[in-house]
Amino acid sequence: MPIYPLFKPFRTTADIVNSDGNCVQVQMLGDTNALQSVLKESVCDESHYRHTVKTRLIKGISNKVLEIPLVELHVRTNLMDKDVLCGMVSELPDGVDFLLSNDLDSNISPEYRYLEESVITRAQAASQKLDLHHHNTNHDKHDGYQHTDDQHHVHEQLDEQTDADHHDVVPANDSNASLDKDDTPLDELLNLLKRSSHKENNDLSSIHSREQFIALQKHDRSLATLFKDALVKDFPNAKPYFYLNDDMLMHHEFESKTYKEADQIVVPQKLRSKILYLAHAILDAGHLGMTETTARLWPHFYWPRISKHIYHYCIFCDRCQRVGKRHKPGVAPLMPLPVMTEP
Description:
This protein has 343 residues and is of the alpha+beta class. The protein folds into two domains: 5-112, Acid Proteases (Cathepsin D, subunit A, domain 1, Beta Barrel), CATH 2.40.70.10; 168-323, Endonuclease III, domain 1. Helix content is 28%, strand content 21%. It is built from nine helices and eleven strands. It has helices at residues 122-142, 149-161, 185-195, 210-218, 224-229, 269-280, 290-297, 306-315, 318-323, and strands at residues 11-17, 23-30, 38-40, 49-59, 65-76, 81-89, 98-100, 241-245, 248-254, 261-266, 301-302. The strands form two sheets. A six-stranded mixed β-barrel has the order 1-2-7-3-6-5. A four-stranded mixed β-sheet has the order 8-9-10-11. Helix 6 crosses helix 7 (290-297).
């Protein structure tokens, strides 16, 4: 079926590839005003995609909200060649089989994007600044340049800033990264790091043992005072305090209003960005607000000024800035009833 003439400059062909290597050719249309990529369900059978047991809510020009299933499939085209998540719909415009939207923008090669320079958020600007700093640092090290103590301090400040201001990417394989209640606090932290494929701090995936984590705590300057104040015995009742559990720094939290208690891991500075990412930005976290993100972290993790870091992470989240939250509609004004003068 012919495509609408105005759509032709933004149309291309793509292949949906299954696990056996069989391909189904589809017509792909790029839509920079849409937030969810969708596939027409009649173009291929179930061997070409995998159900994720998740759904998405979409609303088109009809202004009706539809609940559609979310599937995972492999797309091969000049724009990308990788596994992606997309919705499944029954109908699309004539001549269109796959609608490519902004949710897959990070998977597209820069040379094929429709806009050479688009509006960026504060989180993206901070991420670009950090990438430039890391590039210059690596170049200086390659030339034999040695960092001074002052330059090392500046580098640490930039790393601390990215705890709240980094680019937000949600990989498909992070949907299983959740807090396991059966794990010990340290096992839980190590499992979260292994499951995460976040692009920052990938070198921290080498932490596989309790000793490595404790060494990371002891080398963190921001935790030096807490180690000195940590208790070994004679723990107080109904009060928060720091203590050592086999050389690992822990924090016992106590809420006087609700009488809730929790034994929390004190997270080193280099791991905080990833912990915030797991609590806020993965698929299961759902980009919730500050209260919900805090509720996910409270039973497990702690570090100084954690509430402030959660607040800044949520308000600087790139995706949350793009989508935003719906404002509560205004209350309808009171209208006086007409006075009946006749029966």
